[in-house]
Amino acid sequence: MGAACPGCFEGFALAGRSQGVATLRVAAGEGFAAAFGGARAVAIGIAPGRAEVLGNHTDYNEGFILAAAIDRYVVIAGRRVDGTVCSVASASFQGLVTFSSEKPEKQTGDKAWANYVAGVVSELGKLWGVKLGGFNAFVTSDVPSGAGVSSSAALEMATAKLLARLFPESVGKLSQLDLVKACKAAENNFVGMGCGILDQFSSGMGKAGQLHILDCRTLECSYAPFVGATFVLANTNSPHALVDGQYDELRKNCFAAAESIKKATGRRGITHLRDVDSQLFAAVEDSLPEAQRKRAKHIVFENERVHDGIKALKANDMITLGRYMSGSHRSSKEDFGNSSKELNVMVACAQGIHGFLGGRLMGGGFGGSTINLVREGYAESFSKELAHRYEAQTGIKPAVLICQPGDGATGEPLA
């Protein structure tokens, strides 16, 4: 799941709504001119954050996901320049970060935010043989950083769409799925975060007003309308860092569990936990080491919750969808081990508030946000009461955002 993107804005208001792409487009163009001596950007890349509704940590287990792009966006403005030097700036950091398009080098310290841009350049070359020239770019955003909505994937996808505009003869010939794969590779290989494809796929392939259903093995995707409810994302404002070993430890336990089940059953077709259903798991769970057993239990039943949640969504049964979301959180808390004290408090605080249908932690876990399914018309009052309850119990002021499914990544000329 997406790590924090230090180049993105922080400090969102209670029950905040999106600034809107139009506002971000203007800010990106003005920021570009200020950063590059009055020069005018000629194109922009736009990409949303994502909300994972069901399917927690199922992506790298080649499982199933129900998710949405959200109406919060990264916008990056840019133009080509002669040579191979790339210079990027952010609304949140002073100065420029430069690297060569021929061999981008990993940045450190206050410049580390630019790795999500440089990584895309690097992986476009490695994965698809694309050779780029130089460019200048400026980043602005209203995707919250460190909240579990994958601001990093949004920056990567926005970069890819900008480069498709700036280099139509090369990047511009790649498909949207090609760009998604390059951005995932950037996060895995350049940034060093072992995420699955959920974040980049959701940012790239989202549709406004719809949730998408993703098979992470085949990358087959379908859509279902989302009506009668709203998502409220509640950032606990507790520490949220995934490149510190916890995420990778969960991955290792999942892969080890799949291998253990394969050996115990003799079924050579088992390559990931996606290949294990609840009946098979029940037959072998007592033979697994505790860590493998608990992690596998979460993934196996989470995949089934996704399928059941899809049925509820298609029947417009938001009460049942909410129940599966709450069940997912219990599984994360009791079995997978990726919740936190603050996430558990936030989920508990939502109980009993008018309009609340269900909720769970979102993304990698260990901090970040919960996602709450709330009846249409109740989002504002729910958000205020949730924030009040959480601050009263923890002394921490949360950031609560109301959002709907938004469109996926795109590129545009900047007039």
UniProtKB/TrEMBL annotation:
<dbReference type="InterPro" id="IPR036554">
    <property type="entry name" value="GHMP_kinase_C_sf"/>
</dbReference>
<dbReference type="Pfam" id="PF00288">
    <property type="entry name" value="GHMP_kinases_N"/>
</dbReference>
<dbReference type="GO" id="GO:0004335">
    <property type="term" value="F:galactokinase activity"/>
</dbReference>
<feature type="domain" description="GHMP kinase N-terminal">
    <location>
        <begin position="115"/>
        <end position="207"/>
    </location>
</feature>
<dbReference type="InterPro" id="IPR020568">
    <property type="entry name" value="Ribosomal_Su5_D2-typ_SF"/>
</dbReference>
<dbReference type="Pfam" id="PF10509">
    <property type="entry name" value="GalKase_gal_bdg"/>
</dbReference>
<keyword id="KW-0479">Metal-binding</keyword>
<keyword id="KW-0067">ATP-binding</keyword>
<feature type="domain" description="GHMP kinase C-terminal">
    <location>
        <begin position="310"/>
        <end position="391"/>
    </location>
</feature>
<dbReference type="GO" id="GO:0005829">
    <property type="term" value="C:cytosol"/>
</dbReference>
<protein>
    <recommendedName>
        <fullName>Galactokinase</fullName>
    </recommendedName>
</protein>
<dbReference type="InterPro" id="IPR006206">
    <property type="entry name" value="Mevalonate/galactokinase"/>
</dbReference>
<dbReference type="Pfam" id="PF08544">
    <property type="entry name" value="GHMP_kinases_C"/>
</dbReference>
<dbReference type="InterPro" id="IPR000705">
    <property type="entry name" value="Galactokinase"/>
</dbReference>
<dbReference type="InterPro" id="IPR006204">
    <property type="entry name" value="GHMP_kinase_N_dom"/>
</dbReference>
<keyword id="KW-0963">Cytoplasm</keyword>
<dbReference type="InterPro" id="IPR013750">
    <property type="entry name" value="GHMP_kinase_C_dom"/>
</dbReference>
<dbReference type="InterPro" id="IPR014721">
    <property type="entry name" value="Ribsml_uS5_D2-typ_fold_subgr"/>
</dbReference>
<keyword id="KW-0460">Magnesium</keyword>
<keyword id="KW-0547">Nucleotide-binding</keyword>
<dbReference type="GO" id="GO:0046872">
    <property type="term" value="F:metal ion binding"/>
</dbReference>
<dbReference type="InterPro" id="IPR019539">
    <property type="entry name" value="GalKase_N"/>
</dbReference>
<feature type="domain" description="Galactokinase N-terminal">
    <location>
        <begin position="31"/>
        <end position="80"/>
    </location>
</feature>
<dbReference type="GO" id="GO:0005524">
    <property type="term" value="F:ATP binding"/>
</dbReference>
<keyword id="KW-0808">Transferase</keyword>
<keyword id="KW-0418">Kinase</keyword>
<comment type="similarity">
    <text>Belongs to the GHMP kinase family. GalK subfamily.</text>
</comment>
<keyword id="KW-0119">Carbohydrate metabolism</keyword>
<dbReference type="GO" id="GO:0006012">
    <property type="term" value="P:galactose metabolic process"/>
</dbReference>
